[in-house]
Amino acid sequence: MNIRKEHILVVILMAGIIGFFGIPHISQPSCQPVRYVDLDETFLVLPRETDLNVTFSVLPRMSYPQPFLDKPRRTDVLLMSPWLAPIVWEGTFNRDILNAQYRQKNVIVGVATFAVKKYVRFIEGFLGSANKFFLSGHRVNFYLFTDHPEKVPSMKLAPEKHLFIIPVQNYSRWQDISMNRMDIISSHIHSRWRYEVDYLYSMDIDVQMFEHIGVEIIDTLVGTISSWQYTKPRDSNSYERRPESRAAIPSGEGDFYYAASFYGGSVSEVYKLTTACFKGVTEDRANGIEAKWHEESHLNKYLLYHKPTRLLSPEYYWDEELSRPRIVRVKRLSSVRKDLKEVRF
User: Fold this and answer.
1) Catalytic site includes residue 296
2) Are 314 and 89 in contact (CB under 8 A)?
3) DSSP, res 216
């Protein structure tokens, strides 16, 4: 009887050992980084542990108008895309509520911008207006790429904002400067920014801000609808239509036309976007093709098949050459008037 009991105990012990080492989900955790593969690129992501601490965020008491389902704040513009992404317009959100929510999340937002050759003249206007109007009260890292670091003016920024000056080479053609931005952004995400910021936006340097741009812009993948083409039918938009280009959008397809002057999202999504777009630029170069509107054409191709989770209305990039219609109630960000031939060549 005792021998039989010993046999049973041995069998149970062996089954336990086999189960421990044979079942993957209870194996010992690895300290190696998790590998995330996307767009034929290997993206290393440090392992994250989900915080299960039962601590609840409590918003401060606020007084604001009650929302009603049958009383929309705006009825003169489209507020939702066909894929249920919100379109951000003045009068559609409460900034106080949003700020209260995002301050508890303690996110850090990065802004990548390029001031190469004569575009260094726009640095002071950009940084001065961004310091005042861009994500006021929230942590922001400005990443300024320039071929003239010595010409960057000394400016005092808000305590929560920081400027990082990154030397970069210039190119003989302005088109090459424009198209290589995608590669530079992708490379810096991979090497640095994924450890430093939660969200990343690419913005042109030759713009100024005139109204607050806040956390209403934050989402996973964000595109800005062009102020030049927001009312045009898709076949009249400036998409690249030549099928030999990697940026080509077939006739009869297209949602909105997005401006390359302001786009962004989570660091991982912007990495995917910039990597894919520069891959298209590289393949076009190998085939002797240059897309109609350079990296903007590749951006529009990407956002057609990888739908943005949030759209910014033309308020967020208005062109100074256009008269402002009634539906655009505020001009938050606008291009600076300039002689393009003079600054580009």
Assistant:
1) yes
2) no
3) G
What tokens appear for 258 in the block? 């997005």
DSSP state of 104: H
Position of tokens 């590669």? 183
Phi, psi of 342, deg, nearest 5: -70, -40
3-state secondary structure of 304: helix
Cα Rg, the chain, nearest whole Å = 25
**Are 59 and 100 contacting, i.e. CB atoms less than 8 angstroms apart?**
yes
Mean predicted confidence (pLDDT) in 180-186: 93
> 16: part of which helix (H) or strand (E)?
helix 2-22
Backbone angles phi, psi at 228, to 5 degrees: -80, -25
pLDDT > 50? residue 32: no
The whole-number pLDDT of residue 328 equals: 95
| Backbone φ/ψ region at 48: left (φ over 0), alpha (ψ -120 to 50), beta | beta
Rounded to 10 degrees, the C-alpha dihedral 305/311/313/314 comes to: -50
Asked if residue 247 lies in contact with residue 254, where contact means CB atoms within 8 angstroms, the answer is no
- What is the sign of the dihedral through the CA atoms of 335, 231, 296 and 162? positive
Q: How far apart are CA 131 and CA 141, in angstroms?
A: 11
pTM score, two decimals?
A: 0.82
The token pair that represents 264 in the structure block: 């962004």
Separation of first and last alpha carbons in the chain? 97
Kindly give the residue spans of alpha helices, DSSP state H, lying in 91-157. Answer: 95-105, 123-133
Query: What CA dihedral angle connects 84, 86, 91 and 96, to 10 degrees?
Result: 120
Which of the residues 295, 296, 320, 342 is marked catalytic?
296
